[in-house]
Amino acid sequence: MELWFTEKHTPTVKFSIQVDRQLYCGHSEFQRIDVFDSKEFGRFLTLDGYMMLTEKDEFIYHEMIVHVPMAVHPAPKKVLVIGGGDGGAVRELTRYQEIEQIDLVEIDELVVEVCKKYLPHTACCFGDERVSVYYQDGLKFVRRCEQEYDLIIVDSTDPFGPGEGLFTKEFYGNCFKALKEDGIMVNQHESAFYQDDAVAMQRAHKRIVDSFPISRVYQAHIPTYPSGHWLFGFASKKYYPIEDLKAVKWNALGFKTRYYNTKLHVGAFALPNYVEELLKDV
Ligand code: SAM
């Protein structure tokens, strides 16, 4: 008998992956957690039935959420990751020797435990001495921070369930406050392709535009997310994502990446017209 994982992307669109076997199924206080194994995408993690990452395409998401701001900020020392319990963003951050401190605030301890066991390629750097993990609600965590971080990465689930608070005006305002005077925030910004997602994306974008003086959106191709076309938000107090890109410095690091490069960095901010229209309307 064939086994399939299916995610509903809209009321009339579904996306399915044939599954070899289910490796884990459990419930935390916050959500249902599943890990599957598949031929095409390798192992993959879902929360409440929604795709979080697959072994095959996670590099795209994690490289784009980390290296874009890291190639712009001139001296990032202290970084906060909110969400991101799979460890992929932390893995990319630990490649930078100039970073001194990485704080990860994940609401669900079980996600981290499950990822350490079943997705060791992403959850591989929690043991780095610069990394501290706080099992807390990111919304509450940033309320207490003041001018502490150079970079905040919001690697959250979608704007419902435990992740809902991470798309609010209050949250973005507190992220602004938690950043130093030249700090940058990036967030997973959903997709603009399907109508309901586009509305949620516009709502979040407006709140970021109202909270930060500089706010841009960039894109990547992520095959296992709804529509395959994904957006990221880049919000900043001082630096512009293209004008302040330190391409020579970043290339001199000699990192081997599979998706990100500094030419693509510039191109990623060139958005399709229908996305530009949606962003203009906020
Ligand atoms: N790349 C992923 C995506 O967009 O599908 C996000 C992956 S990561 C697993 C998202 C994490 O955010 C989850 O582990 C979830 O538990 C965490 N999360 C959700 N709401 C949160 C909150 N309020 N505070 C901190 N972490 C939260």
TrEMBL record:
Gene3D superfamilies (UniProt xref): Spermidine synthase, tetramerisation domain, Vaccinia Virus protein VP39
CDD domains in the record: AdoMet_MTases
Q: Does the keyword Hydrolase apply?
A: no
UniProt binding sites for S-methyl-5'-thioadenosine: 31, 106, 137-138, 162
Residues annotated for spermidine binding in this entry: 62, 86, 155-158
- Which superkingdom? Bacteria
What EC number(s) does this enzyme carry? 2.5.1.16
Q: Which GO terms describe its molecular function?
A: spermidine synthase activity
- Name the catalytic site residues: 155 (proton acceptor)
Q: What class of enzyme is it?
A: transferase
What reaction gets catalysed by this protein?
A: S-adenosyl 3-(methylsulfanyl)propylamine + putrescine = S-methyl-5'-thioadenosine + spermidine + H(+)
- Is Transferase one of the keywords? yes
What are the boundaries of the signal sequence? none
Q: In which pathway does it act?
A: Amine and polyamine biosynthesis; spermidine biosynthesis; spermidine from putrescine: step 1/1
Q: How does this polypeptide assemble, per the annotation? A: Homodimer or homotetramer.
Please state which protein family the record places this protein in.
Belongs to the spermidine/spermine synthase family.
Report the protein's function: Catalyzes the irreversible transfer of a propylamine group from the amino donor S-adenosylmethioninamine (decarboxy-AdoMet) to putrescine (1,4-diaminobutane) to yield spermidine.
Q: What is this protein called?
A: Polyamine aminopropyltransferase
